[in-house]
Design a protein that fits this description.
Elements (H helix, E strand, L loop, with lengths): L5 E6 L5 H10 L4 E3 L5 E4 L4 E6 L4 H6 L5 E5 H7 L9 E4 L5 E8 L14 E4 L2 H10 L5 E4 L15 E6 L3 H5 L2 E10 L1 E5 L9 H18 L1
Parallel strand pairs: 1-4, 1-5, 8-9, 8-10
Antiparallel strand pairs: 2-3, 3-4, 5-12, 6-12, 7-10, 7-11
The protein binds phosphoribosyl ATP and zinc ion (ZN).
Length: 219
């Protein structure tokens, strides 16, 4: 019988990919390319890395396809808007920090959330935005876009946007100004609902312990 292997879902390429791999390497896990680009093997421990799109990570982990996953809190919250995420999150990882912000064109006379009531707001995060609108007691039309959200006002697709911001440059070059903080985000380590099988419990604990050590030492 083949030895069971712990599976960790990580972003294949993108903003979290490199830092996720650094965390894994920093924890003493030596990653080598496996059978294909989607699978990396840890050569010194019974662990595989499933390299996927970040959007697939919450579902993979929730379905027990992977025991652990590294994903942005924003993506997790959008996938599971009604779940208690503290039950899923093992730890915050301190990288991939960004904020989801409501932004309006520079000339927009923004007085508070009521200013966007009845307006059209473009976003890739409809569930998070819906919850924010509801918390603020207003309704607005949500225009869901996969990307390029920042051009929506200029294209007259929407009056405002709700998008991720890190440096603020993208908003600035598109003549938009941030007006509300909707969500703070960073990469998080998440776990599957089922406990790992007994054979993998020690390796699971080791990974979590080492990730914690690396995260604390890198601040
Ligand atoms: O291909 P895949 O689906 O895996 O990746 P993706 O294209 O969906 O995501 P990716 O790689 O762009 O981002 C992965 C995660 O990084 C996000 O889910 C966030 O948790 C985190 N992150 C951190 C960011 C940013 N910072 C960020 N600035 N994700 C996106 N942005 C974008 C933002 O959408 C906007 O277009 O950067 C632009 C704004 O940046 P500034 O610096 O101009 O403000
Ligand atoms: Zn994605």
């Amino acid at each position: 019988m083949t030895e069971p292997r712990l599976r960790i879902a990580v972003q294949k390429s993108g903003r979290l990919a490199e830092r996720s791999l650094e965390l894994i390497t920093g924890a003493g896990l030596r990653a080598i390319r496996g059978a294909n680009e989607l699978l990396y093997r840890i050569e010194n421990h019974p662990i595989d890395l499933l390299r996927v799109r970040d959007d697939d990570i919450p579902t993979f982990v929730d379905d027990n396809v992977a025991e652990l996953g590294i994903v942005g809190y924003n993506v997790l919250k959008e996938h599971f808007p009604d779940k208690d995420l503290e039950e899923i999150i093992v730890m915050r990882l301190g990288f991939g920090k960004c904020t989801l912000k409501l932004a309006v064109p520079i000339g927009f006379d923004y007085q508070g959330p009521q200013s966007v009531a009845g307006k059209r707001i473009a976003t890739s995060y409809p569930n998070i935005l819906k919850a924010w609108l509801s918390d603020n007691g207003i309704t607005a039309d949500i225009v869901e876009m996969r990307g390029g959200v920042e051009v929506a006002p200029r294209m007259h697709i929407a009056d405002a946007i709700c998008d991720l911001v890190s440096t603020g440059t993208t908003l600035e070059v598109n003549n938009l100004k941030p007006v509300e903080l909707v969500l703070k985000s960073e990469a998080v380590l998440i776990k599957a609902p089922h406990a790992p099988q007994p054979d993998l419990a020690h390796i699971y604990d080791m990974v979590v312990r080492r990730f914690d050590g690396v995260t604390k030492s890198t601040g």
